[in-house]
UniProtKB/TrEMBL annotation:
Pfam families referenced in this protein's UniProt entry, alphabetically: Asp_DH_C, NAD_binding_3
Single GO term (MF): NADP binding
Residue positions binding NAD(+): 116, 182
List of catalytic residues: 212
Note: The iminoaspartate product is unstable in aqueous solution and can decompose to oxaloacetate and ammonia.
Protein name, UniProt field: L-aspartate dehydrogenase
Its job: Specifically catalyzes the NAD or NADP-dependent dehydrogenation of L-aspartate to iminoaspartate.
Length: 259
């Protein structure tokens, strides 16, 4: 399978490293970056218009919200399926619809990886029947919320117990707390949508890592998914599971067995 990565930061480079280490049946034919002067042993491009010449089967974005629309449109138009890791882009009205329109016309797919979450396959399956509620709680150490609106909503340095400083829709959470927008939108797209999915953001002075708890109820029954994620060694702001989920997706597309 001919693969192009968009972005060569902590996530993109780790995905490439893992694919090589696992001898995945993938040919990395190009990487999209801002600076094409450096040498990483793979052809570099900086313009979506150059994508078609690489003849990719799959394009995986891991470069940030602004990269989703231009590279997504170019990928789908070039006959490649497109993976959007920066799902926060879909909080913008019309973005997902525009990509899906091009995907339909070219008989391609837009793929949403689970990122730092787990159980998204179960949630998406459960949503085939009516869902009554989906609640996603994100718990982080109190200092991890510094530099966000949380500083105005509570005394992060003075907390002695868990404190929920935001309880609202996934769409509002994505707008007010963009660093959590990716996971908020993934849960929303899998289940009830951004306006019916409830997000609770919690600061915990005793937490040592990031915890996600997704609870859903509906005609299927009830589920509760809890993950305690460790950070990526090369970038403590990113979850290791984010890179691993992309590797799994790519291997599922390239290999004979899909799990």
């Amino acid at each position: 399978m001919r693969l192009v990565l968009v972005g060569w930061g902590a996530i993109g480079s780790e995905v490439a490293r893992l694919l090589k280490a696992r001898a995945a049946p993938v040919d990395l034919v190009g990487v999209a970056v801002r600076d094409t002067a450096r040498d990483i042993g793979v052809p570099l491009i900086d313009d979506p218009a150059a994508l078609a010449a690489l003849r990719p089967d799959l394009v995986v974005e891991a470069a940030g919200r602004a990269a989703v629309m231009p590279w997504g449109l170019a990928s789908l138009s070039a006959g490649a399926d497109f993976v959007a890791a920066s799902t926060s882009a879909f909080a913008d009205e019309g973005t997902l619809e525009a990509l899906l329109d091009v995907a339909r016309r070219n008989r391609r797919q837009v793929l949403i990886p689970p990122g730092a979450l787990g159980g998204i396959d179960a949630l998406a399956a459960a949503a085939r029947l009516p869902l009554a509620s989906v609640v996603h709680e994100i718990v982080k150490p109190a200092p991890a919320w510094r530099g966000t609106e949380a500083e105005r909503l509570c005394d992060l340095s003075g907390l002695t117990a868990q404190h929920c400083f935001f309880d609202g829709t996934a769409r509002e959470a994505a707008r007010r707390f963009p660093q959590n927008a990716n996971v908020a939108l993934i849960t929303a797209l899998a289940g009830l949508g951004p306006d019916q999915t409830r997000l609770r953001l919690i600061a915990d002075p005793d937490a040592t890592g990031n915890r996600h708890r997704v609870t859903a109820q509906g005609d299927f029954g009830r589920m509760e998914i809890v993950l305690d994620n460790l950070p990526l060694a090369s970038n403590p702001k990113s979850s290791a599971l984010t890179a691993l989920s992309l590797v799994r997706l790519i291997e599922n597309r390239a290999g004979p067995l899909v799990i």
